[in-house]
Amino acid sequence: MKQPRTIVERTIVERATDDFLRHLRERNVSPHTIKAYTGDLDNFAAYIGSRGWNTIDHIAIRGFLSHLYDRGLSKTSVARALAAVRSLYHWLAQEGVVEQNPAKLVSTPRLPKKLPRVPTIEEMNYVLDGKMPEVASFPERDRLIFELLYGCGIRNSELVGINLDDISLSNEAILIRGKGKKERYVPFGGSALGALGVYLPWRQQLLLTLKKKMAGKVIPALLVNQRGGRLTTRSVGRIVKRIAVARGMSPEVHPHTLRHAFGTHMLEEGADLRAIQELLGHERLATTQRYTQLSVKQVMNVYDQTHPRAK
User: Fold this and answer.
1) How far is the C-alpha of 110 from the C-alpha of 79, rounded, in Å?
2) Which among 22, 179, 182, 238 is annotated as catalytic?
3) What is the pTM of this model?
4) 156 and 236 in contact (C-beta within 8 Å)?
5) Angle at CA 131, nearest 5°, toward 129 and 135?
6) Is 284 annotated in the active site?
7) What are 211-260's pLDDT values in tens digits?
8) Residues 21-30: contacts with CB within 8 Å, 24+ apart?
9) Catalytic site residue 217?
10) Which one is catalytic: 141, 241, 259, 265?
11) Is 175:183 a contact under the CB 8 Å cutoff?
């Protein structure tokens, strides 16, 4: 005779988690985020068990984090789990299920600050002094991308926003529109000027070829794609990574890496921190001072490798 199936009733936290995740899907939240939240909140529900909302306080949530540490999870994973619980409680408060968010009283685990690995001056010169690799779909434009990102230290978003009219060849400077619509002039050197001189005729020829398709449309953008449109930040990211890897650099290189390299190398060569701040468009000097940390780290590495008393 068949035994009747036992129906396991879901706990309050499990039901709330199901509703919260459904809400995220309706809002078209990233599948990656939903997947991460699902795992973290399932762990939270399993730890809490059948307790009700009024019995789950910040001490219980700290206990949950300790439980994750005991399971061998890293600080980054524990911090993500806490963020998921906070988000769940924030939604519950909006729905009127709870009045307070006890997860707010729990401190986020202090994560180690990882300084980005910056290419050396020699690595950058190797990329820029040689021919663009075969993977470069538009070598003249792609070289200019590298020259401007590294030679001017501008952000990816600032790069794609440059128009032809923003360039003053006589002054060798570019008008850059930064964060908060703040404008600044950034100088460029002979290498960038040479790259501009090579690229601009190719750009003009491309747009002439596409003239019929463009229907007389004027393209103000400096950097254009093969269809005559303005390059996007995503496209620049792909171009930089593809060329960097082809030239033997780390696959982790992206446009902001070249901006870091600009600041670090300027500092290593004796540039004043305030001047670097102005060139990078940093509002706070503290942001620029991160480059001193990068330089100190590199100096320490040289010391450890070369000084006889350091070995």
Assistant:
1) 8
2) 179
3) 0.59
4) yes
5) 130
6) no
7) 877 766 778 999 999 888 999 999 999 999 999 999 988 888 999 999 98
8) 23/91
9) no
10) 259
11) yes
Pairwise CA distance, residues 253 & 131, whole Å: 19
Return the axis-axis angle of helices 12-26 and 31-48, rounded to nearest 10°: 170
Q: Render pLDDT for 125-138 as a digit per residue (tens, 0 to 9).
A: 998 988 899 999 99
Structure tokens at 7: 């129906």
Distance, CA of 138 to CA of 227 (rounded, Å): 12
pLDDT at residue 114, rounded to an integer: 60
Give me the residues paired with residue 224 across strands: 230
Q: Are 239 and 127 in contact (CB under 8 A)?
A: no
Active-site residue 75, yes or no? no
pLDDT over 90 for what percent of the chain? 51
Q: Is 32 a catalytic residue?
A: no
- 230 in catalytic set: no
**Helix, strand, coil tally for the chain in percent (to 5):** 60, 5, 35
Mean pLDDT by 10 residues, the chain (311 residues): 58 94 87 88 94 93 94 90 93 91 89 71 90 92 95 92 93 86 86 94 91 77 92 95 91 90 85 81 73 59 59 52
Largest CA distance in the chain: 94
